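Shipment paperwork, digital attachment
Item: protein structure file
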Amino acid sequence: MRAREKIAYIRGLLEAGKPEDKLALSLYSAIAAALDALADEVDELNGKLEEQRNMSEELFSFCEELDSGLADVEQQLDGCDYLEDDEEDDEETDEHYQEMICPSCGLHFLYHRFMSKLTNSVKCPDCDCMCPIPTALETNADDVDG
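Attachment content:
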């Protein structure tokens, strides 16, 4: 028997037996009411548990889809040549980036040469100082000196 059936059985016994002592009748009625409340809470918790199971199944399914998609991406990247050719990356860095020394903190960092066309200064990543971008003449003079 389930909890609700057992509680109904107890209520039936109370109705059929009707104890003559009013205190005993009140006590048994209160116990039956408490059991009803507990059964209601169990039903509510079972509903929430079922809802959580459904959500976890959805989440598991979503994670499987992500894992499958990630495996596809990894498989596609395994055949890419550009990930293995670091020398070309170094040459590209040399072409597009320029080294700068912050006059405030002395940090050596790189900035994109395109920035020199847009602004006259670059923010230092360490101290947030605005460092002036050297002009083309200053850059060429550094190359000849160094």
